[in-house]
Amino acid sequence: MRCALLGNGLKVLIHEEHTAPLASVWCWYKAGSKDERPGLTGVSHWVEHMNFKGTTNIPRDQVKGIIEQFGGTWNGYTWIDQTTYFETATRDALDRMLFIESERMANCLYHPDDCESERTVIISELQGGDNDPDQLLDQELTATAFKAHPYRHPTIGWLPDLQTMTRDDLYGYYRRYYVPNNATLVIVGDVETDVALRRAEHHFGAIQPGAEVSRIRTVEPEQTGERRLTIRKPGTTAYLKVGYHAPSATDGHFFPLLILDAVLTGAKGLNLWSSFRGAAPQRSTRLYRALVERGIASWVGGSLLPTEQPFLYTISATVTDGTPLPSAESTLLEELDRVERGGITDAELTKAKAQLRARLVFDSDSVTNIAHQLGYFETIGGVESFTTLAPRIAAVTVDEVNAAARAVLPSANRTIGWFDPLPVGEESAK
Amino acid sequence: MTPAVAIHLAMRAGSSCDPDDATGATWLLSRVIDRGTALRSAADIAEELDGRGITITTTVTRHLFSLLCTCLADDFEPVLELLGDILMSPTIPDEELATRKGQVITAIRQDDDNPGVRASETLMALLYPNGHPYGRPTKGSIAVVESLTRDRLLRLHEERFAPAALTAAIVGDVDVPRALDVAARVLGLWRKPLPTRTVLPPVRRATTRSRSVIPMMNKAQADIAYGFTTIARRDPAYYAYWLMNNVFGQYSLGGRLGDSIRERQGMAYYASSSLDANVVEGPLVVRAGVSPANVDRAVASIDEEVARLAGEGVTEKELDESRRFLIGSIPRALETNAAIANFLQNAEFFELGLDYDVRLPELLSAVTVDEVNAAARHAVAVDRATIVIAGPYRDS
């Protein structure tokens, strides 16, 4: 892999992968929902939507088809630490992909009519998420677990902010964060590194750097006691979540906690773009056996995501029809207390490492996924935090995992959330 | 090359094989088939899977019951042995069946609270009425799931699972001769007669427009499902239908539908259409998620696009764009091992030939705008649309 820094501060990562005649280009910005000020929650995500709506040199009516004519796909996403955009297409589209991303960085239009039209699209996206009780509980649990840090608000934003944000708010945010010295360009695929770098310089080299982006300085104060929330709404199914404050991806305690999660709920891999779409290998894990095999939950899962700053380790369960929520909660907490007190075994460590080894291979099965991983980790902690994943996982000891369990799992560090369904009205019954 | 192998075993025993009085039996079998065999307990299987960092994904479509697994190349042989054992010799222990029933019942309850699922399943029941297998919910009902016994599921397995109904696709970092040897050793000694063929009832096209509302007042957003029955996959007109649907509701961000409902009117986060041509005439379904205040406007916009498609057809430019996209996307669609395995299974099931990926550009290139427009006139019409709305909405 080649890493280059252009004169305007844009970092460029290029990795040749010649298994298919394809190339994937991702452009990453250190602009996520944690960078948003009160009153502007959701601005990062809305700006992402606006950046698909034409530029000075790509008229609005020519956006559609600009990459499809190369058989390509494109998309983007926003999360708490970053916003990213990508195109994957045949290798002959490399220049087109770089052109699109350079235009997106410098020349988006933000026509007032488009801003208004997108407001209702985003509110529709928010309402679609609210239809899912599990997603609603996740959002409320995060907001309860964090008192100060902006990780507390959802990436899509709070509805009142989405209703009042202006075109100038959006454009101001775009101009502040979409500068080369706040971005990383990743190119992976059937390309020649020297040629790809020259083309990147051609498209991006003249874009002026911006002022250094000021970062939020808020540190979440240590949690001093267990927190709880209960959502009571009409529904058919009960959901349970327990969230613990957890270390960031660059903290030495992250990897022992990753092993602990694999022991409790199975290894998911570390690719937000792909690996969470499939189930984890978890049938022999502690929480699966305690909850699913005993008929208490129909599903259980753990989520420890690599983030720039300390976020959450969350365990979620879908409670089986007919099982009381308190019973599910006490079974879950008993298992967590057990591992906090007694730690894990050598055999569990070995199995968790084997799982993670396999998942890391599966995480990088396409040019799109390889490019995602390079850019994602570069955004949260430097690209070396990706290239050193395997040895760092391999080096974890049982003692380190047990220390992580003792540090993270105490009750004072957790927030417990219930979705406790009320009977659905007659009009909604099947 | 990624040091991994994708294994995709597809048995011609999908939900269309559900007995008439046991809708959901195949789905329940899919949840319990890998929880114990003649050679392995559920705990043994769990250890084998978790120790290798792999999972088995079991899928049920109308016609196929599939086991899918991606493993490290070094694990290929033992993993295929495990999958073969699961497919050929499940024992369905009673205690495992009881646990999986609990999971399936909870999943059915979740579906009951999901406007998207309610709208889609109701639309399929209306398009394929009178117990047609395409109109039945794959998971079945709580009452049927509760009534299913171990013996009933073993009988279903005995009647429907056989070597002549199985196709194995193996793709990845493994030599072909070795893959064939292992497959022959694992599956080659299995002897059972070919199951009787499931005969599907004929599909009757709707002749009138219908509209159904499922009020779900506890929800924030309404889901619209709007559809028609179309053609069978083996119909020579399939490629014209495929291109027609791409222009209508797929190309870029949802084709014409996405342009109108999302981009121009800002009414929905998603608006698109899908075509699922199958063994018999499959559905073309438009889906959109909208605020309850916009339901009527969204349905009117879909009507408008349907009328335009049927009346004016597509333009040469639109057809060329979609064709170019579909042909150009073939290398991307065949990039990963799992995607290639899935493509091969599809080609095998519909008898498209192992050179289908090579022939596909020609097949798409041969379609004319007149053929696409004939497909549009045949497929869609405002006065034959079946419409279902589920969510916080009532008919005024």
CATH architectural name of the largest domain in chain B? 2-Layer Sandwich
Q: Which protein chains are joined by the largest interface, and how many residues does each one contribute?
A: A-B, 73 and 76 residues
Which strand order spans the largest sheet of chain B, edge to edge or round the barrel? 5-9-6-8-7
Structural class based on helices, strands and sheet pairing of chain B: alpha+beta
Distance between termini of chain A?
56 Å
Assign the CATH architecture of the largest domain in chain A. 2-Layer Sandwich
Give helix % range of chain B: 40-55%
In spatial order, strands of the major sheet of chain A run 1-2-6-3-5-4
Radius of gyration of chain B, in angstroms, nearest whole number: 22 Å
Q: Order of helices and strands of chain A, N to C?
A: EEEHEEHHHHHEHEEHHEEHHHHHHE
Number of helices of chain A: 15
Biggest β-sheet strands, sense, barrel of chain A: 6 strands, mixed
Describe this structure in words.
The complex is a heterodimer of chains A (430) and B (396). Chain A has 430 residues and is α+β, with helices and mostly antiparallel strands. Chain A has two domains: 2-204, 2-Layer Sandwich (Cytochrome Bc1 Complex, Chain A, domain 1); 227-428, 2-Layer Sandwich (Cytochrome Bc1 Complex, Chain A, domain 1), CATH 3.30.830. Chain A has 15 helices and eleven strands. Chain B is α+β, with helices and mostly antiparallel strands and 396 residues long. Chain B has two domains: 4-187, Cytochrome Bc1 Complex, Chain A, domain 1, CATH 3.30.830; 210-391, 2-Layer Sandwich (Cytochrome Bc1 Complex, Chain A, domain 1), CATH 3.30.830. Chain B is built from 16 helices and nine strands. In chain B, the strands form two sheets. Chain B has a five-stranded mixed beta sheet, sandwiched between helices. The chains are: A alpha+beta (430), B alpha+beta (396). Chains A and B meet through strand 5, helix 3 and helix 11 of A and helix 2, strand 3, helix 4, helix 5 and helix 10 of B.
